[in-house]
Amino acid sequence: KDKLFQKSTLNKELKAALDENIDWRERLLFSEHHLSHAASAFYPSPFERAAVLTLDGVGEWTTTSIAVGSGSELKVLKEIHFPHSLGLLYSAFTYYTGFKVNSGEYKVMGLAPYGEPRYSDLIKEKLITIASDGSFQLDMSYFDYATGLTMTNKKFNALFGGPPRKSETELTQREMDLAASVQKVTEDIVINIAKVIAKETGEKNLCLAGGVALNCVANGILLREKVFDNIWIQPAAGDAGGALGAALSIWYLHHKKERNSSSNRDSMKGAFLGPGFEDNEIESKLKSLGAVYKRLSEEDLIEEVASALATEKAVGWMQGRMEFGPRALGARSIIADPRSPMMQKQLNLKVKYRESFRPFAPSVLRDDVNDWFEHDSDSPYMLFVADVQKDKHRTMTSDEEELFGIDKLNVPRSSVPAITHIDYSARIQTVHEDTNSKYHAVISKFKEKTGCPLVVNTSFNVRGEPIICSPEDAFKCFMGTDLDILAVGNYLLLKEDQNQELKENYEERYELD
Fold first, then answer.
1. How far apart are CA 435 and CA 440, in angstroms?
2. Which residues pair with 245 in a beta bridge?
3. Is 341 exposed, middle or buried (CB count within 10 Å of its CB: 0-12, 13-18, 19+)?
4. What is the pLDDT at residue 355?
5. How far apart are CA 498 and CA 502, in angstroms?
6. What pLDDT is stored for residue 23 in this prediction?
7. What distances in angstroms separate CA 134 from CA 34, 161, 195, 199, 369, one per listed residue?
8. How far apart are the first and last CA of the chain?
9. pLDDT at position 500 over 90
10. Residue of 157, 174, 182 whose CA lies nearest to 90
């Protein structure tokens, strides 16, 4: 409850701490949570005008907002307030299926294709009422998050046939069906709201932010439905992006600065806004850690990494400035060969130390995306899911077709099985030479060697650990996993060359996510 009084608390504490002659009230600017989300989505977008939809758990009171941006102006038109929240409905099922709230929601999204949405009608009948204007209300008698310490209660348990799954226990078909059901309901609500916004505002462009905007499956459906001509999503759509949105809202709405919308894709510069390290810094740190490395020209580094990928080696890839947001976009990534039928399972269990069902994303050269996926627009921030092109599908045997649940996992479904989810979909990142030239070059070289213009891309970390930032982080994660090769700047490290005494047990270092 404390966040509801942040502004008054800050005023009170500053009054007590500062010289009475300082007028802190003129200097303390407070950007409301959903306005910050909306600003983070609209102002960096390539649009002069757009409708803006924000969806998350809860800000101060707001859980959903609709705004319209034009030039430097941004005006919130409608809001839905706590406790009625699509984000918290999804989090309730995250909790109920045995995952951690506020971090495990993407696992529910990844688990959904293994199940059938057999509970979706029950959710709509009992838990949420959806109005014709796109608004919705939850029946709070099934939830405990507004007043208690858990997301759901006994009435919720009775409705779905038992208590919540305990974390780390075996996943059953029931959890898969629950995941599929809440995912389907979320998709339906997002499409419904979008259609209402398009009709009421007449806008042709849509911007999205808030935690629910990271649901790339729903985003992909929204894109294919063509409710709007163009969609742009803030890559740091969750609360981290609120810092950016607060700064932008102060710049444009408080200081009245003129906005020039980007003539390029957007003004986020590929979201490579974090720290970067020069080669001399990298070498100094590697030397101090006792690493064995060789310095190569950029051309030779790209050649060696592409050759390693083509022989099914898993590569830690740390280049340039770090990504801003929850996705690794080719600056702090683990990359691998998507053609390998065992790569998904091996990366999950031997490198990431996480559940085997979790899918990996492809990084694909922008010029080649439509040849491999049913998608032909930019997706630089890995925020849209699309299907693998049918000519890349593998025909399944009758026995394989009969498999259920997790048993489906090890059946190759396409010529790039490591990134093809069980419903033939993939979470696409398009790679652009102007924002990430080195990553573009290594994928291009891999294509030259194999004919395949994409690589597996997953974040450079182990389960529960933050994405690596520094050369030290990269080396320690390299030595704590079964990665074969590490490329940091223009330095290449082979696992077999390293002092084996430097190996670390990363599997149990961090609290599970």
1. 9
2. none
3. middle
4. 64
5. 8
6. 75
7. 18, 30, 8, 11, 33
8. 25
9. no
10. 182
Residues in the chain, overall count: 513
- pLDDT of 278 reads 96
Q: Is residue 65 within 8 Å of 38, Cβ to Cβ?
A: yes
The whole-number average pLDDT for the span 321-340 is 96
Q: What is the pLDDT of residues 459-495, one digit of tens each?
A: 999 877 899 999 999 999 999 998 999 999 999 999 9
Structure tokens at 204: 């042709």
Does residue 458 contact residue 334 with C-beta atoms inside 8 Å?
A: yes
Q: Is 76 exposed, middle or buried (0-12, 13-18, 19+ CB in 10 A)?
A: middle
Cis amide linkage into residue 417, ω under 30° from 0:
no
- The encoded tokens of residue 497 equal 């060359």
Question: Mean pLDDT across the chain, nearest whole number?
Answer: 91
Structure tokens at 24: 């802190």
Dist CA 505 CA 128 (whole Å): 45
Rounded distance, CA 498 to CA 504, Å?
12
To the question of pTM greater than 0.85 for the whole model, the response is yes
What is the distance between the alpha carbons of residues 414 and 339, in angstroms, rounded to a whole number? 9
CA distance linking residue 304 with residue 293, whole number of Å: 13
Residue that has been written with the tokens 């806004």 in this structure: 273
Nearest residue to 127 via CA among 152, 163, 106 = 152
Name the token pair of 176.
């898969």
Could you read off the pLDDT of 125-181 as tens digits, one per residue?
A: 999 999 988 899 999 999 999 888 889 999 999 999 999 999 989 999 999 999 999
CB-count exposure of residue 354 (10 Å: 0-12, 13-18, 19+): middle
- Distance, CA of 64 to CA of 86 (rounded, Å): 8
Side chain identity, residue 104: G
CB 446: neighbour CB atoms within 10 A? 25
User: Could you give the count of Cα atoms lying within 13 Å of 260 in the half-sphere of its Cβ?
Assistant: 2
Phi first, then psi: what are they for 4, rounded to 5°? -65, -20
Among 69, 73, 71, which Cα is nearest to 50's?
69
How many degrees, rounded to 5, is the angle at CA 476 between CA 472 and CA 480? Answer: 170
Query: How does pLDDT run across 263-309, given as a tens digit for each residue?
Result: 668 999 899 999 999 999 999 999 999 999 999 999 999 999 999 99
